[in-house]
Model the fold of this input.
Amino acid sequence: MKVTVTAGNGRFDPDDDRWLVQARELYRGLASETEVTYQHSAAEPGMKGVGLTEVAIAVGEAGVTGTVAAITVWLKRDRDRTVHMRWTVNGVQSEVTLTGRTVDNPTMRAAVEAGLRAATGAEVEAFGDAAGALEPADAEPADDNPRE
Done:
């Protein structure tokens, strides 16, 4: 499945060299997990060059966890970063925007992973299993060996 990934931020212009270095870090992290196609924007008059606006990644069943991990690591470095993802399955386009401010939310990570797994046709785990931390903090584990 093809997923278009666009890095964003709240501090730099899209063509700022400092920002382009940060965006390339995300795209290199994704490339270590899955196949990446780079999509460059056209140079505009007065601009120094061609910007890297987004990448298309090929996400299969095996690449979902690594893709989510690469995005999570990159977002954790700066709370102003965003990652916008778009994909189409059976003619229906879905999209999500992740932010550095919500990246530590286990529900958010589990939802993104479950959505990508469903879109790739992979077996979808229950949210509690995928997130690992969705049960209430004060819940006690089931007692498999009751004491008398």
